[in-house]
Amino acid sequence: MADTQTIIPVILSGGSGTRLWPMSTPDRPKQFLPLTGERTMFQLTALRTHVADRFDAPIIVANARHAELIEAQLGEIGVSPAAIILEPCARNTAPAIALAALEAGSAPLLVMPSDHIITNEAAFMAAVAAALPLVEQGWLVTFGITPTGPETGYGYIRKGDALAGEPCKVERFIEKPSRSAAEAMLADGNHLWNGGIFLFRADIYLGALSIHAPDMLAAAKAALAQAKRNGARIFPNNEAFAASPADSIDYAVMEKAERVAVVPVSMGWSDVGSWDALHEIGHKDEHGNLSTENARLDNTSGMMVKSDGIRISASGVDNLIIIASGNEVLILPRGSSQDVKKFAG
Amino acid sequence: MADTQTIIPVILSGGSGTRLWPMSTPDRPKQFLPLTGERTMFQLTALRTHVADRFDAPIIVANARHAELIEAQLGEIGVSPAAIILEPCARNTAPAIALAALEAGSAPLLVMPSDHIITNEAAFMAAVAAALPLVEQGWLVTFGITPTGPETGYGYIRKGDALAGEPCKVERFIEKPSRSAAEAMLADGNHLWNGGIFLFRADIYLGALSIHAPDMLAAAKAALAQAKRNGARIFPNNEAFAASPADSIDYAVMEKAERVAVVPVSMGWSDVGSWDALHEIGHKDEHGNLSTENARLDNTSGMMVKSDGIRISASGVDNLIIIASGNEVLILPRGSSQDVKKFAG
């Protein structure tokens, strides 16, 4: 780690809240739910960098409708944000990060989605430390998750030439692949999952934006110039921000910039993108059942049962996803959790 | 039918409300639920004999906690009861019918459970007409349902010598049989299901009670002598009624009395004793799904889905029972609806 300059965590709170319906909803997407324990994934993300000598207070970039939820959840864990930038509309990750970078000066930014799980935090911190020398030299660094299976739901990164130590140049970014392509990438050992976690200096990111997406940078600057501020809350101007092109950081910057590196890391990462994923990472009983207190399971196995109120009583069934929230109950076979999209929203 | 004497329907509203949990509960057992259409089974039972020239106003015998429910449900269908006898405690069917018989004088009583379905009412009325001459001669008549399968959940009646026309003497009553015994009875054609429906003169029943269960008759008389009355409501004395032996009419009277006949009838009868039974008799779509409005089924077959509020969304599952009521959801494989007892009550 650098002795002189601390890192500013930038926590992105996006997501439409449909894949974990009925628990996640637009009013309460999955990062604000305590899906894996007592803390929500947003809280776990904020706590991950709540280390005074290495990190500054975080900048949160979020949907304006979640302002109170964010303040309440940060309050519960005793984290004071440097800023909560409340987007008046969604323009994908590149403009969101631009808003944070413009507030941050030239500090290194650790950009993190708020809805992922990392079980090995020491491995994550080691990867950040490994990336920092490159970042100080002006590289844009992404973290590539060592794949554990031929997942078709993630983007991949192909490693290029090695830099000093673990980091490599990025050869290219690959979109969600077919099954066979995923299997080939897993087999060749040269590919990593794109976890959407980045480390770079704010000024370097803004410089790359000025070259590769100048309209986006201009829109972010204008939105902040006309922003309303209230305590930590920053409300960028709606009309100015709406004028920004909508694009991801991968497309707008990382694929186009010159000095882009990837640091491989194996850290128990999951994007918790489905009820199946949550079953996979969660604590199961000896019959492979994962369930909450208000469920009564008798003669069942392989169940993923979760409820925030309704009492679920099931007997003689196996390998079902049963999720109850509010006045809704979802029932799917395990392995089919993508079918939630038939009902959500 | 007799020209001179009309029949008094006696509707028995017993049942603990556990087999159709979570919809049926002790506060609202299954006869008070609209399980097969707009009307509840209690209402359908009352409407079955709501024929002015053949039947008098009914006598209801029920649990005291259901008094208001009964009056409301009778009010909805425009039936005025002769009496609502509200049992202070449950003593099984023989004492319940004794209370009704003591209120009725010497009229023929048609005793009916309130929680059965009869889809062919004309066949039922024809069976009643066939029984009436015997009843006027002092016979105790039961109606035997022509079996449609080797059911192990019902009692059976073995037919004896034929009387005039369809009716036969009862040779004996048989308790819920084993599967093999049920198959043998179905094969020999001499057995009928015991549907718990009876026709006899009130005075003949009371006479049989005085011989075979004198303590029961004495308790019923004492309970009514000290009863409180309020409009149609009759509240038998608790202490006096509690002193009665608890026994079914089958054991206490029908198995012991001399002149006991059975009239065979095939009338689309079901005791709706389980969610499986309800699926069997209900209207299903082309995929064999029976469901209520607030259920969303996608790529399912053979489902029995019912909810009184919670919205159920299911995809890719087959042959499940999913029942939601209030804050409870029950999930079982079809064919296992007896497992509801693991959770109910």
Task: Describe it.
The structure is a homodimer of 345-residue chains. The first copy, chain A, is an alpha/beta fold and 345 residues long. Chain A is 28% helix and 28% strand. Chain A is built from ten helices and 19 strands. Chain A has helices spanning 41-48, 67-77, 93-104, 121-136, 179-188, 202-212, 214-225, 238-242, 249-254, 275-281, and strands at residues 8-13, 59-63, 83-87, 108-113, 117-118, 140-145, 156-162, 168-174, 191-201, 228-230, 233-235, 260-265, 269-270, 290-291, 295-298, 304-307, 311-315, 320-325, 328-333. A five-stranded mixed barrel of chain A has the order 6-9-7-8-12. A four-stranded mixed beta sheet of chain A has the order 14-16-18-19, covered by helices on one side. In chain A, helix 2 (67-77) links the parallel strand 2 (59-63) and strand 3. The longest helix of chain A is centred in the middle third of the chain and has 16 residues, at 121-136. The model of chain A has no long low-confidence stretch (mean pLDDT 94). The A-B interface holds A 22, 296, 298, 309-317, 320, 322, 324, 327-333, 336, 339, 342-343 and B 22, 296, 298, 309-317, 320, 322, 324, 327-333, 336, 339, 342-343. Strand 17 of chain A pairs parallel with strand 19 (328-333) of chain B.
